[in-house]
Structures are given as structure tokens and as C-alpha cells.
Amino acid sequence: MTGPDVSVTRAAQVPPEQASLLREIQHLAAVGAELTHQLNHSDVDYSAMTRTVGQQSQIDQHRACAEIAARIAGAPDTWIARVRRLGEQGHQWHADQLLPNPVTSGRRGAITQIAADIRHLIDMAALAAARQHHAIRNSVDEQGNSADSENVDSRRFDRNMFEIWIRAGRIAQSAGLTGHERARLWSVSDKDWTHHLAQVLRFAPTDVEAVWQRYASPELGQQVEISLNDLRHHMLGIAISGPHAETEQLPPPPSVFVSRAHHALHTVIEHQPPGTSAIHTAITDALPDNPATRAWEPEPECEDTGPVDPGSLRGNAAVDPEP
């Protein structure tokens, strides 16, 4: 008699908050895929293309925000990748779909956990840089936030970032990762930083704020603290050798992540042509690669598509139930 398959989890068994976010990611991926299909299989009408690409850009931004929120809620990257792929294939969420579980034990499990924490640090640094760029800190009156609550949130965000950094380093120490393994885990190229900041800068300021607040939540701090306490207990008796082991086995400190995020932000801004909108950029990326289409410029009155409610597009996605 065999036991349950621990390599997968049924969607119905996913914790409610994670399930809600994963369902949203899958739906938005399905909508985005349908919009891509419309662009690739319709006559070239530039006014219609402007509207469609504008919708697609906003859908992609909503999905990217939902993916960050799902990671904060504790959803493994394997689940996020799975529901994104299912959505792109036209499948909507259902309770019996299977999500692959990540390896959580042994050396491979440690590497998976460290990679997830490094991704958190990158996301946090990028969001902090984008938040400052959008001058959300200077518009607290419009959002109804007081200076005191802003300071409390910022301190909690910094504290959560610090403890996630400590956790990544402690896991690396407890697993006895080599210098080469550690370098590969927390080495991020300038190109990757620039790409990530370009994506986050396309988020609406309200979306940046909402995800930033998730990272500043006391609930996240409590979760990280619990995992750190478990790690401290696990590491009792583990010898960390080397004259500089306590520091050399840690990832770069949060200040380095923040600094690199700001550098990438300035790079993105410096290389963005004056007056270029996100929709214009998305349209240029979507156009076929030939001179006739690349020379096209959007009409001013078509450039602003207005806000899109992802739920309003639910009926537009051609989706079939998963076999």
C-alpha cells in the first residue's frame, strides 16, 4: 500500500491566501495569452493594437505584482511557475489541478530556500527604489498616512529585509555550502538588475505601495522570526570554520541590494527616450520585426487606454478546462 504523493499538492489543499493569489496569477496569465493570440492572429489595425497592447501591458503588470505577493505569502516558485504556465495554456484554476512541491530537505532544499530569500531581497530593494521614484513618501497626505505610521512601516520593512538576509546566510552556513555555491546563489548581474527594475517601474504606484506594504507587514516579520528560531535550534553544535566565516558566508548586506537597485533604476531612466510611455514601449516590443511596422508611432489619442480591471476581461479569455 502506497502513501500519498508528497511530490505534488492539489490546489484544494493550498492555504487560502496562497490559493487566492495563485488563482489570480493563473487567470491573468490566461487573459494575457488570449490578448497575445489576438495580436498575432488579427489584421493589423494600429488603433486596435494600441488598445490591446495597453490592456496586455496592464494585465502583465497585475500578474507580476500578484507573483511577488504570492512569494511573500509563502507560495513556492514551483507553484507560481506551474499556474502561470497553465494559464498561458488556457486553463483556469480548479481544485484538482496538481502543483509540484519543491524539494525542502537536504542540500538541494537549502539551495531552493536560499534562492527564494535572495529573490525576496531583490524584490524588496527594487520596490523600495521604485517607491521612492514614484515619490509615494511625499504624497502621504493623499493616501491618508501619517508621518508616524510611515516611519513605523519603513522600520518594519527594513527589519524584515534584514532578517530575511540573516536567514539566507544561516541556511547557507547550516548546509555547509561552498564558496562557489554561495557566489552563484547571490550573484546578480547588472543586466538582471536593470531588467527587474524596468519591470517594477511599469507597476502603477498604487501597486508598488500595496506590495511594499506586504513586505512591511508584522505578519511577515513573525513568520521570518519563527523560521530563524528554528534555524538557531538546528544549528546548535554546527561548527562554522574560518577566521571570517561569520561574514564571508553571508550574502551581500541589504544596503548592497538597495544600492544596486537604485543604480539599475537610474540606468533604466537614463536609457528611456524622453516622452516614451510604457504602452508605446510595449507596442514596439509586440510589433513584427520589420522596418515598416517598427517605424510606426502611436496616435496621441490612442496612447492612453485607461485603467483596466482584470476581472472585467474574464469573459474575453478563451479558456478550456484542464483535461
What descriptive keywords fit this protein?
single chain, 323 residues, mainly alpha, two-stranded antiparallel ribbon, 15 helices, globular, disordered C terminus
Q: Span between N and C termini?
A: 27 Å
Q: Strand fraction band?
A: under 5%
Overall number of domains:
2
- The SSE string, one letter per element, is EHHHEHHHHHHHHHHHH
Q: Give the fraction of residues assigned to helices.
A: 55-70%
How many strands appear in the DSSP assignment?
2
The chain-level mean pLDDT equals 79
Strand order of the largest sheet: 1-2
Which structural class matches the secondary elements? mainly alpha
Write the layout of secondary structure elements.
Blueprint: E1 8-10, H1 16-40, H2 46-72, H3 77-88, E2 98-100, H4 106-133, H5 140-143, H6 147-175, H7 179-185, H8 190-201, H9 205-215, H10 218-234, H11 245-248, H12 254-270, H13 278-286, H14 291-294, H15 300-303
Antiparallel strand pairs: 1-2
Helix pairs in contact: 1-2, 1-3, 2-9, 2-13, 4-6, 4-8, 4-9, 4-12, 6-10, 8-12
Structure, described:
This protein is mainly α and 323 residues long. The protein has two domains: 8-101 and 287-316, no CATH class; 106-270, no CATH class. The chain has helices spanning 16-40, 46-72, 77-88, 106-133, 140-143, 147-175, 179-185, 190-201, 205-215, 218-234, 245-248, 254-270, 278-286, 291-294, 300-303, and strands spanning 8-10, 98-100. Strands 1-2 form a two-stranded antiparallel ribbon. The radius of gyration is 22 Å and the shape is globular.
